[in-house]
């Protein structure tokens, strides 16, 4: 029995956690035996303080699930000894002994091509084949066995034209699981129903993609001040508005499995290029219909002045600003966003969990919130993901824009670890933001050709 870090255990088996277990016991340590044939977590019962072990092995669909519980004992050391014996015993069993009998359907396989090679999305091909993307591939593989596909087309879309949208959905699946929710995908619409003790809300995911034709196929030039202003104040609000309005027209809140529950739209920008990491403020402007000017007084104090926005226009297209103000929008509880919810997040989280080639070096460069109340600009950072001091979570960078008119408000505590934003009556913004909250970043991949190859 060998100890493993929690991030490794979570990547392999965290999707098996039931919300109730988080209230009943505390996980104290995590272990593997037999080259991860068997996993285990030592828990402490919240009621009587006894220690016991949850032992897990792969079911017929390749998911780590509980197959044995070791005795609960007052002594932590004695409980670990008992757990080790149970793990060794379970590891010697035939694999069929681990099957639960309730597995339905065949396990999903994201990476075996189901279409001709020329149809593969170039980013899928990189993740599936290249050494530099091996950590992302490694962390997605155990996740895919837990992912339900009610539409029956997820794998094909993941490998072809829908790669970015499917990555965004996988990111949300991982983030909501990390927050302690059980994800129900029994219904094809909406994408997720997140459940915990006394909590249930629905999530529909969407993405902003490059337009191939029409007025939004021409993008403002970002190499001039005028172009950048047009991009952020006109073009990107139009792009966000188009994606959100497409979902809004479907009236998910009227469906029986959604009615009466908070409904969240989750959106991400996948247009490509560096612009993806800079469009957060454009979403904020469109949702609330306000932009903000600022200046500093002689004492260096920052003053922020709200400025109402009536519309956004580019080329021949125009929309009214203020998504949350339109009739019917009270049925949308919040819009969530994370421009880190890309394949780069899977690269970094995979490396943290010990997946991938040891020859890969990841460097993350970006900006983060400066909590100085008089700061007008974010702070810049550069992090070596390979460093033993590097840490990250799935929820890191997650923004929640709350609808001030929501019929079913989403409470701040329901999405722990995220940054939450509210529009106040005076049109100023109130934000509750974690101490460390990246606003945008890029991850650079290099492969040390002289290092030995020992892929995990």
UniProtKB/TrEMBL annotation:
The protein's name: Glycosaminoglycan attachment protein
Organism field: Blastochloris viridis
């Amino acid at each position: 029995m060998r100890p493993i870090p929690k991030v490794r255990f979570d990547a392999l088996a965290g999707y098996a956690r039931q919300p109730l277990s988080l209230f009943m016991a505390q996980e104290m340590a995590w272990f593997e035996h037999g080259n991860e044939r068997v996993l285990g977590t030592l828990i402490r019962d919240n009621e009587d303080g006894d220690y016991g072990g949850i032992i897990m092995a792969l079911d017929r669909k390749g998911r780590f699930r509980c197959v044995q519980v070791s005795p609960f004992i007052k002594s932590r050391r004695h409980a670990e000894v008992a757990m080790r014996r149970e793990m060794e015993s379970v590891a010697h069993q035939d694999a069929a002994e681990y099957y639960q009998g309730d597995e339905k359907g065949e396990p999903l396989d994201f990476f075996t091509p189901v279409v001709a090679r020329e149809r593969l999305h170039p980013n899928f091909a990189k993740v599936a084949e290249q050494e530099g993307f091996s950590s992302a591939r490694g962390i997605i593989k155990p996740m895919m066995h837990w992912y339900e596909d009610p539409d029956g087309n997820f794998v094909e879309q993941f490998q072809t034209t829908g790669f970015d949208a499917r990555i965004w959905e996988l990111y949300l699946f991982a983030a909501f699981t990390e927050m302690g929710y059980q994800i129900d995908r029994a219904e094809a619409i909406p994408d997720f129903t997140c459940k915990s003790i006394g909590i249930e809300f629905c999530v529909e995911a969407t993405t902003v993609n490059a337009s191939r034709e029409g007025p939004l196929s021409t993008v403002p030039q970002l190499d001039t001040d005028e172009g950048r202003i047009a991009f952020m104040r006109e073009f990107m609000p139009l792009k966000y508005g188009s994606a959100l309005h497409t979902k809004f027209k479907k009236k998910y809140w009227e469906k029986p499995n959604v009615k009466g529950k908070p409904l969240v739209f989750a959106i991400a920008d996948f247009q490509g290029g560096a612009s993806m990491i800079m469009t957060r403020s454009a979403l904020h402007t469109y949702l609330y219909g306000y932009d903000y000017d600022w200046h500093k007084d002689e004492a260096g104090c920052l003053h922020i002045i709200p400025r109402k926005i009536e519309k956004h226009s580019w080329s021949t297209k125009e929309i009214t600003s203020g998504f949350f103000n339109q009739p019917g929008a009270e049925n949308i509880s919040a819009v969530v966003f994370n421009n880190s919810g890309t394949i780069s997040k899977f690269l970094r989280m995979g490396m943290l969990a010990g997946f991938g080639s040891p020859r890969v070096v990841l460097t993350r460069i970006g900006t983060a919130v400066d909590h100085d109340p008089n700061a007008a600009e974010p702070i810049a950072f550069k992090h070596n993901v390979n460093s033993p001091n590097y840490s990250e979570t799935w929820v890191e960078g997650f923004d929640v824009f709350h609808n001030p008119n929501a019929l079913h408000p989403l409470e701040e505590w329901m999405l722990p670890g995220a940054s939450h934003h509210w529009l106040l009556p005076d049109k100023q913004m109130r934000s509750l933001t974690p101490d460390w909250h990246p606003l945008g970043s890029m991850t650079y991949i290099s492969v040390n050709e002289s290092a030995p190859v020992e892929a995990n």
